[in-house]
Known about the structure:
Number of strands: 2
Number of helices: 10
Amino acid sequence: MAETKPTAATATAAKSSSSVQPRKKSNSISWVAPLVCVVAGYLIWRFIIGADSNFTQPDASGGFWPTQEGPKSAIARMYKGGIIVPILIGAFLTVLTFVIERFMTISKATGSGNIAEFIRKVQYHLANKNVDAAIAECDKQKGSVGNVMKAGLRKYKEMISAELDTEQKVLAIQKEVEEATALELPMLEKNLVFLSTIASVATLMGLLGTVLGMIRSFAALGEAGGGEAAQRLSQGISEALYNTALGIGTSAISIIMYNIFTTKIDGITYGIDESGFTLTQSFASLYK
Length: 288
């Protein structure tokens, strides 16, 4: 029986298997946080802003939406803005939640030290053919760029002794970097959609609350007369505008933080691209 020898294609497939493993992380915060924040927004609106002690004529019957009269402060007047107010408070709390979550994640992904300086150190070690020292630099960096670079360097080290031509080796390294990048980028961009969505919707919800408040105000104007009507109208308009203020404020914070985070992610992405280019070009020049 003839002996079966491994072909070059088989060897290539065996050696090109990726060492990058997908991260299995739960994203339950993406659906739990908004729900919890809206509930918390209602509790703040109903039991803190709308507490009986904040009004001269509290509604003794209580209930889901008691009719409190005579607010003692500007904060208490926010309660009179209507049922859209707790939704806006919930949206604001949701923004704060995801701002904190994204800040922690992106700060961790950025790693320690300057990314450009880290890449220069890796280039120096590769120029001296010291791959282990380059991998040690990745362990010190502890960020997404370091993770991608480390995955590429492991394949880099493996390809040095592989029985393939230079082009195949470079393609194997490039593929490893691309796979590692595909695992890192979704983690960076995750949950940013909530900030972009709230940035658009919060202003519209605020305007909706204002319109509903104006409808109530003009309805009350038709029922009253004289100086009392003008007083009730001005009071109603003032209360309705709290919705607009909350909506615009929440939207502004969302837009600002979204832009800050996307700028940081762009910097990390650029570092990842540069690291992949560094590995392929170094290998192609040193191991022809």
